[in-house]
Amino acid sequence: MLPPRTRPQAGALPAPRRVVGASVAVPVALTRGWVPPGPLDVRLTVAPWRRGAGDPSFRITPDGAVWRASRTPAGPGTLRITGSPAKLEGQAWGPGAEWLLDALPGLLGAHDDPSGFVARHRVVHQSHRRHPGLRLTRTGLVLEALIPTVLEQKVTTTEANRAWRLLLFQHGEPAPGPAPADRMRVMPDARGWALIPSWDWHCAGVDNKRASTILRAVRVGARLDTFASLPVEDAATRLRTIPGIGPWTAAETLQRSHGAADALTVGDLHLPHHIGYALEGTRRSSDEDMLRLLAPYAGQRHRAARLILLGSHAPPRHGPRLAPNPPTRDS
């Protein structure tokens, strides 16, 4: 006879166990409840995790649950988030389960403080009012944020998402626990990325420049995730010492790993035009124009940019979209 279950203390993590049936062992999750301190829109907050509709590391299932497969410092783990904004519950599986549950509040914006944000433009004010639950996620995982960002350098979003998807399916590992449809994957560890053959990078549409940048980053390996404990400015400086990582890549990485409210993406192909069109009605704007327009939001420029993107239309296009370049054997 099994001993009676004891009720864990509030916030405590129950010990992992397995329920054994006739022929299979069903993993049982570690769980944690969390009550957000204020308004929270879970989908908006976790949106930066997603790298396209087919991202093998991220799912939102029809029941509204958010699933995330991640490689933590403790190992691979799968996180499932359910509940209402009034009270959320995290369930996690795998060696990284406890780490993911400890990080759950930060993932959902608990470390983000929008209280000092003041909207200076009508578009920003309206978007801020319509999206009071937007929080900036903080994963604490620098390498996991960096690699898909490098894949996005100088290519279309479609190309980058395809590369991420193919590389994870081919070189990642199945997500622990009952991941949806058994199609979720945890990205390789640093050694796994280093061992990817050059032809597989090529077949995924990743040119030598981006592949070389990732290989230089994974040589730093687990030390990259120690950057998560550094202030944003220091972490950006450390990242930019790696050849191939510039201001754009560092900002996009730190927005996710640190929840950096002021890490504005400079050097983006579309963002300055969107900001300029929303705030001044100009269809073509430079990085300098964007920095001037967002100067009143110093310390909160990334938050302001996200609100502008959520609350306004992009400028009309007058030319063809950038076409992806599929790899060939002769390229």
TrEMBL record:
<dbReference type="InterPro" id="IPR051912">
    <property type="entry name" value="Alkylbase_DNA_Glycosylase/TA"/>
</dbReference>
<dbReference type="InterPro" id="IPR011257">
    <property type="entry name" value="DNA_glycosylase"/>
</dbReference>
<feature type="region of interest" description="Disordered">
    <location>
        <begin position="312"/>
        <end position="331"/>
    </location>
</feature>
<keyword id="KW-0227">DNA damage</keyword>
<keyword id="KW-0234">DNA repair</keyword>
<protein>
    <submittedName>
        <fullName>DNA-3-methyladenine glycosylase family protein</fullName>
    </submittedName>
</protein>
